Amino acid sequence: MMDKASRLKVALQKSGRLTDNSLDLLVRCGLKYSRGKDQLLCYGENMPLDLLLVRDDDIPDLVQQDVCDLGIVGLNVIEEKRLAFQARGIAPLFEQLQVLDFGKCRLSIAVPDGAKYDGPASLRGKRIATTYPNILARYLRENDVTAEIVTLSGAVEIAPRLGRADFICDLVSTGSTLLANHLREAEMIMESRAAIISTPVAVSAEKQAWIQRLRMRIDGVQQVKESKYIMLHAPRAKLADIRKLLPGSEAPTIVPLDGAGDKVAVHAVCRENVFWETLESLKGVGASSILVLPVEKMLA
Ligand code: PRP
Ligand code: ZN
């Protein structure tokens, strides 16, 4: 195992929408970790990799400052930081490596129940509370709207009730925060998901090799989530029809069946979920003994 300085440091959200999924992703990539007493540092036991659990908004800065090599954070935070750095004339020193398949949400304008909203023009001259001032400013600019941006560091949803703002611009995932605060989503500004960022600062060859390995494993984990292994028997003459029905499969394996005349076995990896309707259609064109199995791991 590598010495301390050459261990990869990965920043994750401490407690929030992305925490469980981020940890789960790394565990699926084979990581075994133990959590420190302070709960802020996890030590990778079988990989030269440690996890730093921090506020999501701090993750791009930690990567920018080269404290962490990688970070898992929402596209919303990445974009806000990128614009913030740009506004200050600083080049962002992090790059987006990979978009992940969790943490879906949207950054939206929300208005108090009963308030009128007829498109961006309704924002003119209003006070809008947000923790995303740069993304909001760009949106207002693009829509030719002048409004006052009230930048808060949290609890944006209570700003209208406190009289600090007319509207808010915040993340909406399930919508329960808005509902609980008598707000309604009026306009979506940006869609977001979790993504991995990395430092472009030259890391050692050893670290780079681990980043590559991790990326390949993450690709594999993301692919198997939807993938299925399908096996069936079919008359050889029906193979063309069957291949058309197999969702997202490349070259299936065709094996002759001993003593079954013209019948063959078809084995294929489908990169999309296989629904009952597909099985029924396969049966309809002559397939039988159809089995669908989950895929545990995949390496392209
Ligand atoms: C966002 C946002 C809302 C909540 C919305 O917080 O600020 O509080 O999630 O989710 P809901 O629609 O499911 O209720 P985030 O997870 O980014 O945490 P943070 O603001 O504390 O960083
Ligand atoms: Zn946050």
Question: Explain this structure to me?
Answer:
This protein has 300 residues and is α+β, with helices and mostly antiparallel strands. It has 3 domains: 4-101 and 194-223, Periplasmic binding protein-like II (D-Maltodextrin-Binding Protein, domain 2, 3-Layer(aba) Sandwich); 105-192, Periplasmic binding protein-like II (D-Maltodextrin-Binding Protein, domain 2, 3-Layer(aba) Sandwich); 228-294, Alpha-Beta Plaits (2-Layer Sandwich). 27% of the residues lie in helices and 31% in strands. It has helices spanning 19-28, 59-64, 75-87, 133-142, 176-180, 205-226, 239-245, 276-284, and strands at residues 8-13, 33-35, 41-44, 49-54, 70-74, 95-99, 105-112, 127-130, 148-151, 167-172, 183-192, 194-198, 228-235, 253-256, 263-270, 288-294. A 7-stranded mixed sheet has the order 2-3-4-1-5-12-6. The protein is globular.
